[in-house]
Structure prediction request, 546 residues.
Amino acid sequence: MTVWMTGSGWVPIGDNSNKFSGTFNANGHVIKGLYIDRDENFQGLFGFTGAQSLIINGRLENVSVKGKQYTGALAGFNNGNITYFSVQGEVSGTSFVGGLVGQNIGNILRSSMVGTVIGERRSIGGLVGYSLEGGTISESYALVTVEGVGSVGGLVGNHYRANTHNSYAIGKIDADNFNAGGLIGVDLHGKISNCYAVGEVTASIPSSGYWTAGGLIGDCEVDPEVANSYYDSTVAINTDTDRGEPKTTADMKAMETFTEWNFAGEDAIWGIVNTPTHYSYPYLIRNRQDPAPGYTLRAPKIITAFELNHLSPTVSGIIDQENKTIRVLVPDGTDINNLVPTITFSGQTITPDTEEAQDFSDQVSYTVTAEDQSQQTYTVTVIIKEKDPFIVSVNGVDSITVTYGASSAEVMAALPETTAITDSNGDTHLVNITWDLSNYNCYQTGAYLIEGTFLLPTEVQQADTPIDLQVFTIVRVEPQPVTPPTQYTPPSGRSSGQYGSASEAKDPNATPNSVMSVQMLTIIKPWIQLSSWIMLQAPVMIGLWL
Prediction:
């Protein structure tokens, strides 16, 4: 195509006196850089196609096509059949200007245009400028910016007794004067079904004041047959009463909206992305846009925190994201008729507004609206906590006895680890005891008063008249045991002369040595006592004597 990149560029195949009536099968090939700059009618890769023509299975990329009337990148005027052909680039002309085809009375199936289409006058469309009686468009789409004076549409500029089904247009549509529509600029006796448009549509309002712009169709001289067709009211500037059904972006990305469309089975025409994280507008299964139209992360609409900061301490709600509920427990005595919550959320708006006082004596609903206008409602329930029971008594602890020299660790092991307390409801609770052995001495016989302390369980509070959170026990240390003296044993190997012969026969009537020792002590002891008395009294007696 580089030969045709200068001057007036490519010379179209066929014209109104010599129509192209053959078959052009591109076999999936891409034609790049088609260039036309010619101030003539019937401009495009093909100028004029006859009823027997077939153009199929190809793509035009980076086109720059400029003509007068009946100008389109693929064909200026189509009376034949176009299937599976796509265009990307820029197309401009005066009237009957379209991104794919300038004027159509043939059949266009599973084709598309992505780019910009500009017309100086009327009948300017993203895919087709003017589709009239006998013309059919099906399973096709346009992603475009379209500008013109009048009859400007995202897919078709002027739609007269034509049929358009299962198609869509997304883009920005602007008419300098009148009749602009997200899908079709102006319609007369046409049939439109299972189509949608997402577009920012603008048009001037003439002095006559008749309908000039709409989300789906700009103007209808006679009401068209429109069935199961929608437009994104979040995006469209103008409404479209009684022509297309307005839906929010969220609704336009929900399969449930398109109840009569074919999304299932082998013959399915439409698909849609609907995952927990992403969603899209419907796409055509056999003419798929990649990525899918409007494919984005789901617009967030979630409450992430609910707090009552004016309470002390701050109370935070428990959020159940699965069931979309928030449960708030406030202390006994809280006035729940005038609470001001602080709410953290992801979304565009929240109703009622955060920091706005509410009466929570009954459930309160908060609705988060996302940027796509989808909504999520949370139900908030505030519950006043019942007053906790208070401590009324502490069970005593038995005393223990340990041996002399028992270590602190041994004493600690012998002491009980827990005791029981009783609350005002009559319930008992086990509490852990921390013992203080600082005054314990393992080498001092006697009784020690040992103190233990404990903490209240979270569900039990202190009494109005506080009770000491402590217990006492006695630790007794046994006396040190006395070790008996060891009995004397004479050394072995004594001589027979010293202690008598070992061979001497013992007298059976003789008194045992141990008994004799006792008898001797009995005799000697009084003498020892008498001698001691004499020693003490001697000085006195001497003095009396002298």
